[in-house]
Specification:
This protein is an alpha+beta fold and about 110 residues long. The chain folds into two domains: about 35 residues, no CATH class; about 55 residues. The chain is built from four helices and three strands, in the order H-H-H-E-H-E-E. A three-stranded antiparallel sheet has the order 1-3-2, covered by helices on one side.
Length: about 110
């Protein structure tokens, strides 16, 4: 019994045996019949439980955001651009050119 489990765990069967075929079928069954929710992380599960839209990223020109430190101003710009009055800014990253000048902002929103 122990040697059978060891062979199964370490996959010590030749390719042309019925054991190999059974292991392949078990793997395929697992792949195609496993619920997608098993592979979602906790944050995504929490979002889908509350029916909130999934977070997305927008690229906003630097001329639209005058003060990147002011989260309220950034959220107002995003709400205007997306026409979503309850949009929230999760993260803000600056996009710089080769000279170090800020050209745009990547904004993660929900």
């Amino acid at each position: 019994m122990l040697s059978g489990l060891r062979k199964l765990f370490f996959w010590n069967y030749a390719r042309n045996t019925w054991q190999w075929d059974v292991l392949c079928v078990v793997i395929l069954i697992f792949i195609f019949l496993t619920p997608k929710s098993w592979f979602e992380n906790g944050e995504r599960r929490a979002l889908s439980a509350h029916q909130n839209p999934v977070a997305s990223t927008m690229l906003v020109g630097a001329e639209l955001i005058t003060n990147a430190e002011d989260r309220g101003q950034v959220e107002q710009v995003i709400r205007t651009l997306t026409n979503r009055p309850r949009a929230q800014v999760l993260k803000l990253r600056s996009v710089k050119d080769s000279e170090g000048k800020i050209r745009a902002y990547e904004v993660d929103i929900r």
